[in-house]
Amino acid sequence: MPLGIIIGILAFILFVILISIRQVSEFEKGVRFNFGKFQKVLEPGWHLVIPIFQQYQKIDIRVKVVDVPEQDAITKDNVSVKINAVLYYNIFDAKKAILSVESFHYAVTQLAQTTMRNLVGSVTLDELLTDRERISNEICVIVDKATDDWGVKIQNVELKDIALPAEMQRVIAKVAEAEREKAAVITKASGELEASKNLSLAAQQLSNSPGALHLRTLSTINDVSSDQSNTIIFAIPIEVLNAFGGNNTIKDTIQTLGKAKTTKKKTTK
User: Fold this and answer.
1) Does the residue 116 lie in any domain?
2) For 170-184, how does the pLDDT look when each residue is reduced to its tens digit (9 = 90+)?
3) Same domain assignment for residues 23 and 97
4) What separation, in Å, do the N-terminal and C-terminal C-alpha atoms of the chain show?
5) DSSP assignments along 132-155, one per residue
6) Residue 143 to residue 141: CA distance in whole angstroms
7) Is residue 180 part of a domain?
8) 201-222: per-residue pLDDT in tens?
9) SS3 breakdown of the chain: % helix, strand, coil, rounded to 5?
C-alpha cells in the first residue's frame, strides 16, 4: 500500500479521534448512547464519543433553585390566599433523568405548584400562617417521593410569601388588637388583685403592731416634705394618740371637746 494512503488513513483516524473527544466536567454526568440505545453513564473526565454512531448528553448534578410562581389557593376554611415558594433539588441518577422524563426541570416545577395548592387547601388559614415550616416539609416529602423515579432529589422547599386579601388583613388586625386588649385587662385585674392582697396584709401588720402606723405616717410625711411646693395636712390617727397617752387619751380628748362645745353654746345664749 502506498505510503501516502497510509498517512491519509492515519490522519483520518487521528482527526476522528480528536473530534470524538468529549469533556465531562466535575459537576456533570454524561449519558452515552450507541445507535440510539443507552450504553453507560460517563463520569467526569475525557471520553470518546464517535460521531454518527454514538451520541451523548450531559446533566448538571449541582443543586438547582426553582422559584415556584405565585399560586392562587383556597384554604380549608375558604380563605383565598396567594402563595409562592422556592424549591431546591439536584440530580442523583443521570440515567433516570434522561430516560424517564422529557424535561425534569419543567416536571419538577409543575409538580411543586400542584402539590402546594393541594396542601394549602387541606389546612386552615391559622395553620398556614403558624405552621409554615411543617407545611413546607410536607410539600418537600410529597414532591421528593414523586420525583424519585425521575432521578431527582428534592433538598428543601420553603414558602416565601403568603398574601392575604385586604379585607382579611383588617379582620386579622382587629382580632390581634382584641387579643392584646384582653391580655391587658387580665394583667391589670391580676395586678389589682395582688395589690389588694398586699394592702390587706399590710393593714393587718400595722394593726397588730402598736406605733407602726405612726412611724409609717412620719415616713410618708418625710417623703412628701422633700418637695417644698407641697402643702401637708397632717391628720393625727387615733393610734398615735393611743401611742402617746394610753387608752384613756382618746376618752379625755373627746370629753374635752364636748365640754368646749357646751361652754360655747352657753356663752352664745
Assistant:
1) yes
2) 777 788 888 888 888
3) no
4) 168
5) HHHHHHHHHHHHHHHHGGGTEEEE
6) 6
7) no
8) 887 777 777 777 667 777 777 7
9) 55, 25, 20
